[in-house]
């Protein structure tokens, strides 16, 4: 036993654990396998234990503290003191135990050494060269590994930024502005450095990761208002993805990446008002997706195709091409409906379907399909309501539900049902309140909220609730002012800022403030003219510009400046006629042109240009009667036309027979009754619209007014 203790080396822990019967149970306690447990012990833990069991005192740990320090070094991944003994020390120990055998072997080695030396010297030089080459290869491999590791770290960093910041909706909060700019700046610099590191690299993985990084970075920049910078970065992603997609062996995902980048660049061009440029990107996106669908009719490809159609549809709608927009929208809805039936539990597909239905519901009124519009919007609302209820933490579902409700309120306003408009805007605001309170700086939420306050103010104005309308308009105006300052290249916010200014001008006129009214209209006019010049295809600006000119004409008429009023009204008419020529099959061009002709007729009547007034009124009637579907509001405008004819017939200069005048009055009352029975409910207009003055002495008019006033008191939300 003493000899064993003095001379025989003890077994290492890793060796013992691999041979003992208890190894499986010991490994199970540590949630691993016996082989892995032995591997964990092998190496530094073996050295520490063996140092404790060294034969010579001076090679063991001096104190328990020394052992503790070495264990701490192991836990800290530092080099332990208990490294294996030097080769010299091990050789000395071996010789002391085997002196005879070592002497014999030494003689043999001396004999062999002479022959080996000669051969070794010849191989040395070649080996040295090979060693240097291997070293260089190892260095290059190590450098490549570092580059890849740094790149993947950057990918994780930008993904974390994109998810953690973007999806938490903190991007537009004022208190995060400095942090946001710093983070985005660092992210951009990070990718510039990576671009340099990867320059000349041809491996697919690195290039694809870099493209994805650019894609996500551009999305972040766009959401924080830096559209021009976002476009440059997004085009870098697109260039890389195009190159990858052309290489042999490119898979379907690489082709889809091209489609996604085309959609992203199109969205940025759309946001900055370059609708033609956006349409080109969306058209190419559709081409890529359609070619892919032929070979790979899978969900991801089909949804990408639907996305391109939706984007094209909405851009065409903003250009006033509602017929073409509707065709594209219907195709998108059909695709997404089919995909959702195959995968009914996919929330993302249902969300896309609802969004497509919502957009289609917004386009349908422009081709006179009002009932289809409300049906489409309701289908979208039901899908989004269930998504929002099932996923209460997913904020975009609630936001899109609010957007759908907002669009429904806008449609209700256009048909003339102002009480329902007001109730629906209140519902939209209540849906938005929670996410707006949680993310007060998020740009999309603020824009939708402003739309709700705008629609609310307009509805209250039509209902005669003028005092209540003012704060609603002011709230909307304040939001859009902030959005314009935050995103100066985003034309949508500029447009609605001008739109709201025009509505405030109308309200000021009705509350007896003509100077403030004129000031608000002039502000709107200046902004809208600028937008129309910069973006000639953006017809929405031209529509509101025409309406602003009409409102200025009314102010001038009220102040007795008839010649100026007539001139301004003709400017409005010229805009309307051009829009009608450009979009002959779109219903709103006929509706709005008829409204401008009615305004012109009122000015002409004041100037006693009765023949001209009669021509204007009859043209308005013709446009209204040609509509494929007549809304309650259209019917009200028809009543106004015939009431104006009845009023002019009482003037001798008009040359209209009294019997014809009486007939016009009867027709006017018939249409007026139809309008209110159909849902038109502006009691305020019934009270004050000068177009109806010729009807006010009629008993049936008085009865209708009394009924509507009673209904107004009973049904106000």
How do the helices and strands line up, and which of them pair or pack?
Layout: H1 2-7, H2 13-19, H3 23-29, H4 34-41, H5 44-52, H6 64-75, H7 87-97, H8 99-166, H9 177-198, H10 204-223, H11 227-246, H12 252-271, H13 275-295, H14 299-318, H15 322-342, H16 347-363, H17 370-390, H18 395-415, H19 418-438, H20 443-462, H21 466-486, H22 491-510, H23 514-534, H24 539-558, H25 562-582, H26 587-606, H27 610-625, H28 632-649, H29 658-677, H30 683-688, H31 699-715
Helix pairs in contact: 2-4, 5-6, 8-9, 8-10, 9-10, 10-11, 10-12, 11-12, 12-13, 12-14, 13-14, 14-15, 14-16, 15-16, 16-17, 16-18, 17-18, 18-19, 18-20, 19-20, 20-21, 20-22, 21-22, 22-23, 22-24, 23-24, 24-25, 24-26, 25-26, 26-27, 26-28, 27-28, 28-29
Rounded to an integer in angstroms, the radius of gyration calculated over CA atoms is 40 Å
* Portion of residues within helices: over 70%
Mean pLDDT: 83
Query: What gross morphology would you assign?
Result: elongated
Oligomer: single chain
Q: Pick out the low-confidence regions.
A: 163-172
Put simply, the count of helices is: 31
Main β-sheet: number of strands, strand sense, barrel status? none
Structure class: mainly alpha
Please report the total strand number as a whole number: 0
Strand content: under 5%
N-to-C span: 102 Å
Could you give a quick summary of the protein structure above?
Keywords: Membrane, Repeat, TPR repeat, Transmembrane, Transmembrane helix. The protein is mainly α and 717 residues long. 80% of the residues lie in helices and 0% in strands.
